[in-house]
Write a structure and sequence with these properties.
- By secondary structure, the protein is an alpha/beta fold.
- Among the domains are: 5-42 and 198-289 and 475-535, 3-Layer(bba) Sandwich (FAD/NAD(P)-binding domain), CATH 3.50.50; 150-185 and 294-388 and 416-467, Cholesterol Oxidase, domain 2 (2-Layer Sandwich), CATH 3.30.410.40.
- Helix content is 26%, strand content 21%.
- It has helices at 14-24, 51-54, 101-109, 117-127, 155-166, 198-202, 252-262, 268-273, 306-310, 313-326, 418-435, 438-441, 457-467, 518-535, and strands at residues 5-10, 31-34, 64-65, 78-79, 128-130, 144-146, 182-185, 190-191, 194-195, 209-212, 216-223, 226-234, 237-249, 265-266, 280-281, 293-301, 338-342, 353-358, 381-388, 396-398, 409-411, 444-449, 469-470, 501-503.
- The two termini are 21 Å apart.
Length: 536
């Protein structure tokens, strides 16, 4: 019997939605899109600030925990990842950051033809429907709407930007323009006051696109070295789905290597440990794990902040009505409203540190528990943060059982390279200087964390180890490269040594990009669809 589908896309996340939507839009291909989670979570996955609720919601969030991290003194790290149509783009903070040209030229220099900045920029422009309009750096009319927020951001964000100029940073109207260097308002993925996830952007109703939610891929199916389908566990139980052309794995930097390993593609010694038949011995599956760390300084403010709007019930009522009636106000935005990129040393040719500014403060939960971001600290407060763009610490992940329901063991190895700790320490000193500028000094009542008692390098290093956290940008676990001995997929995202299988998500990043990784992940989906359609 002929397979019911030409293509099966596993995972309806940021890249998976882009792949499935593009493959289906010409109407010629039968596409199945498999998603382990539900279609959505009501208003919480449509209202932009709803990520305060979905951050700890197991119905739409995998809620991973890493293994204890030695660099954190044995702390674990919480990793929310989307388990819903749109994946992490449905539960993230919506910051649209494409990376900088040097990131992708570095990918191309590693032997990945077709991934230099001109190729990538063309994909970005094609996928965008950007508030800034058409031009050399942006596109309009694409599926993904990108919103500028300078007229809607909290007034404290303008004070942060003034402070940035006092630190010598230029103000830019476009943190995704010719250069990302400087400070400005972050662009976000929303449309008319609603979150614009990859699902809302790409998944239009089409008779040839079949979306199967609450359907968990458990292993790949083979005919020799050809991948021909997927075994799934769905609402009706176990079944198999066959593909006439290709299977595209888009389960993310955790789910993609996990499914490969469960299917017999990965380090042979690991697979044999769990009596999994080795289809292909690929040492790189699950290796090369990279992520961005972030470190906050939290301040009590002399001026009103979002704490005063989102804390008391009267404030909640006001902003709630503002959103329901006009799709405006704090609930229509991200909490990461300002930021930018700077060079930590004058001899660098490109920025290496990202800045975040949030006009709100809240106690960061150290373990999964329900704490909505709409329950901020009971005083006026805000935070400023640093996040090194190119950490050198590299981790790995591996299955712990042949059972598809078992969570992989994740070892991020944060701060294992001394370079990363040195960068965060320099970032802490930068934040202190930023807080001492006339603009911020005038509105800071007190540095709450780390607090003025932390002055020495040792004090600040101890605080970094205690409080730094993931900004949820895991990449690299199915790295792209031309050498099968060192990479999982080739530059057209085909798995080395197999036919009929590609991987298309953030797991293919050979090196992490500068800034937030959601936009690059969607771009990977765009490029994957190009490669597939070009070969069909």
């Amino acid at each position: 019997m002929e397979p019911a589908f030409d293509y099966i896309v596993i995972g309806a996340g940021s890249a998976g939605c882009a792949v499935a939507g593009r493959l289906a839009e010409n109407g010629r291909h039968r596409v199945a899109l498999l998603e382990a989670g539900p279609r959505g979570y009501g208003l919480w996955t449509r209202m932009p600030i709803g990520y305060g609720k979905t951050f700890y919601e197991p119905r739409v969030n995998w809620m991973y925990q890493t293994a204890p991290v030695p660099g954190f003194g044995g702390r674990t790290s919480y990793w929310p990842r989307g388990k819903v149509l749109g994946g992490s783009s449905a539960i993230n903070a919506m910051v649209y950051s494409r990376g900088q040209p040097a990131d992708f030229d570095e990918w191309a220099a590693l032997g990945n033809a077709g991934w230099g900045w001109p190729d990538v920029l063309a994909a970005y422009r094609r996928m965008e429907d950007h508030d800034l309009g058409p031009g050399p750096w942006h596109g309009v009319g694409g599926p993904l709407h990108v919103t500028t927020i300078e007229h809607d951001a909290h007034p404290l964000t303008a004070e942060f930007l003034k402070a940035a100029t006092e630190m010598g940073l230029a103000i830019t109207s476009d943190l995704n323009g010719a250069s990302i260097e400087g400070a400005g308002y972050y662009q976000i993925t929303t449309r008319k006051g609603f979150r614009e996830s990859a699902a809302t952007a790409y998944l239009k109703p089409r008779p040839n696109l079949h979306i199967l939610t609450e359907t968990h891929a458990t292993r790949l199916l083979f005919d020799g070295r050809q991948v021909v389908g997927v075994a799934v566990m769905g609402k009706a139980g176990a079944s198999e789905i066959r593909a006439a052309k290709e299977v595209v794995l888009c389960a993310g930097s955790i789910g993609s290597p996990q499914l490969l390993q469960l299917s017999g593609i990965g380090p042979a010694a690991l697979l044999r440990q769990f009596d999994i038949d080795v289809v292909l011995d690929v040492a790189a599956v699950g290796r090369n794990l990279q992520d961005h760390l972030c470190y906050d300084h939290i301040y009590k403010s002399r001026r009103r902040s979002l704490n005063d709007d989102l804390g008391p019930w009267t404030g909640k009522l006001k902003v709630g009505l503002q959103y329901l009636l006009f799709r405006k106000g704090p609930l229509a935005l991200s909490l990461n409203q300002g930021g930018g990129y700077y060079r930590s040393r004058p001899d660098l040719t490109a920025p290496d540190i990202q800045l975040y500014f949030s006009p709100l403060s809240y106690e960061r939960a150290s373990a999964p528990r329900v704490r909505a971001l709409m329950s901020p600290d009971p005083f006026s407060g805000f935070s400023a943060s640093v996040s090194p763009c190119k950490p050198k610490s590299v981790g790995h992940l591996a299955i712990t059982s042949p059972d598809w329901r078992a969570v992989p063991e994740i070892h991020p190895n944060y701060l294992s390279d001394p370079f990363d700790l040195e960068q965060l320490l320099g970032g802490a000193r930068y934040l202190r200087r930023l807080a001492a500028t006339p603009s911020l000094a005038a509105i800071i009542d007190n540095e709450m964390k780390p607090g003025q008692a932390a002055q020495s390098d040792d004090d600040l290093i101890a605080d970094i180890r205690e409080r730094s956290y993931s900004v949820f940008h895991p990449v690299g676990t199915c790295r792209m490269g031309p050498d099968p001995a060192a990479a999982v997929v080739d530059p057209e995202l085909r798995v080395h040594g197999l036919a009929g299988l590609r991987v298309a998500d953030a797991s293919i990043f050979p090196i992490i990009t500068s800034g937030n990784t959601n936009a690059p992940a969607i771009m990977v989906g765009e490029r994957a669809a190009e490669f597939i359609l070009g070969a069909s």
